[in-house]
């Protein structure tokens, strides 16, 4: 702490007094969130929040922090579910909110250059007029800096892959203020180490990303959504496995269990009521004929797996309505708790053949522990989240 006061004056010199904050509301906002599973101790909060506007300012800030041995945590969207920006050492939060520009769109090259506080939704809005889109789609409000830091996924990962597949190169400021570029824009380059992938998923431990060159792709001609419910989790998982095994090129396949559907109905976060049963949500994308064929194949496979219901969207509005339960899953769980409750999130990945068994065992364990959780799964790749509202909880002492 003795180093913080002189560092504070250095920060003001670099970014200006208006862009260095010690206000309690700013400090608290950069400390944690009500949807994070990892809550900080009372003293685990930043000393101050600094808002740089350029790579040069970030470099100068980190040089000061390196010299004065001040801990640094980066912050962009603040949507983390797992405590990525918890300040365990009472240092500085570097908020990239002023670095929020799409710097370049290279339509013919299918790539873009963006700053870290560009949200994936904002980016897709900027690409829409050119008929392009950026596939990674984690939670609402997530931004490129955090998406790179966590190597995020999303509902589109089944067809398009995770963040790792969509980053070409990064501009990164290292802990001592050194600025590096991990590679150049041309995609076919085998020279040197693959530094880009080293930084993706490093959660800010190796450096702070200030620019990213990202791949984009052509927006599909047509899309649709289908929803089908099942008597059991095992039947729903079997249907998902059957769709994958038959090579149906769906864009996404998501599973919400009966508890999650119950949370959704109780919260009223969507415009309709749902069967409170294990439910699969499918996205289709491609040509109009291709989308129609995919939906028909999935309908037949769902029927074989014992589906109780099957609905296909007939318009864009119906697509939004049918997908709304998946999109609002987190908020539906949060609505089930009290205002002071937090949400505990589990994240599990297994081989796809083990998915039904692990979900069933998880539900048994939750029930025997007296806990209620909604389960949401990216079942196309064997991954699911269990989310339950819980009383404020301390860190476990595992010493």
From TrEMBL:
Gene Ontology molecular function, alphabetical: D-lactate dehydrogenase (cytochrome) activity; D-lactate dehydrogenase (NAD+) activity; FAD binding
Give GO cellular component annotations, separated by semicolons.
Answer: mitochondrion
Q: Which UniProt keywords apply?
A: FAD, Flavoprotein, Oxidoreductase
Annotated GO biological process: lactate catabolic process
Q: Which Gene3D superfamilies match?
A: 3.30.465.10, 3.30.70.2740
What the entry lists under InterPro entries is as follows: FAD-bd_oxidored_4_C, FAD-bd_PCMH, FAD-bd_PCMH-like_sf, FAD-bd_PCMH_sub2, FAD-linked_Oxase-like_C, Oxid_FAD_bind_N
Instruction: Indicate yes or no for the key word Oxidoreductase.
Output: yes
Q: Name its co-factor(s).
A: FAD
Q: Pinpoint the FAD-binding PCMH-type domain residues.
A: 42-219
Q: What is this protein called?
A: FAD-binding PCMH-type domain-containing protein
Q: Which organism is it from?
A: Ophiocordyceps unilateralis
């Amino acid at each position: 702490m003795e180093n913080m006061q002189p560092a504070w004056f250095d920060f003001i010199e670099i970014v200006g007094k208006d862009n260095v904050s010690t206000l309690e509301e700013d400090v608290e906002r950069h400390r944690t969130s009500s949807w994070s599973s990892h809550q900080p101790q009372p003293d685990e909060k930043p000393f101050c929040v600094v808002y740089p506007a350029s790579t040069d300012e970030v470099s100068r800030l980190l040089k000061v922090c390196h010299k004065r041995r001040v801990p640094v945590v980066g912050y962009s969207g603040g949507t983390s579910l797992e405590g990525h920006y918890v300040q365990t050492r009472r240092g500085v939060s570097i908020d990239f909110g002023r670095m929020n520009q799409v710097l370049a769109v290279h339509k013919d090259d299918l790539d873009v250059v963006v700053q870290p506080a560009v949200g994936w939704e904002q980016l897709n809005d900027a690409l829409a007029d050119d008929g392009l889109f950026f596939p990674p789609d984690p939670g609402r409000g997530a931004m490129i800096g955090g998406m790179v830091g966590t190597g995020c996924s999303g509902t589109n990962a089944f067809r398009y892959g995770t963040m790792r597949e969509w980053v070409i190169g990064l501009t990164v400021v290292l802990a001592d203020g050194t600025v590096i570029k991990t590679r150049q824009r041309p995609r076919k380059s085998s020279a040197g180490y693959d530094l880009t992938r080293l930084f993706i998923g490093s959660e800010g431990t190796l450096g702070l990303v200030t620019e990213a060159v990202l791949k984009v792709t052509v927006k599909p001609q047509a899309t649709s959504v289908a929803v089908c419910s099942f008597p059991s989790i095992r039947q729903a998982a079997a249907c998902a496995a059957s769709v994958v095994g038959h090579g149906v090129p769906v864009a996404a396949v998501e599973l919400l269990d009966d508890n999650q559907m119950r949370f959704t109905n109780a919260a009223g976060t969507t415009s309709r009521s749902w069967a409170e049963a294990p439910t699969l949500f499918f996205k289709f994308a491609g040509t109009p004929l291709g989308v129609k064929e995919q939906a028909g194949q999935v309908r037949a496979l769902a029927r074989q797996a014992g589906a109780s219901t099957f609905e296909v969207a007939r318009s864009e509005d119906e697509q939004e309505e049918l997908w709304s339960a998946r999109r609002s899953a987190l908020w539906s769980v949060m609505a089930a708790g009290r205002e002071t409750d937090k949400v505990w999130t589990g994240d599990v990945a297994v081989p796809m053949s083990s998915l039904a068994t692990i979900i069933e065992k998880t539900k048994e364990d939750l029930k025997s522990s007296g806990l209620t959780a909604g389960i949401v799964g990216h079942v196309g790749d064997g991954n699911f989240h269990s989310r339950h509202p819980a009383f404020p909880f301390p860190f476990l002492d595992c010493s």
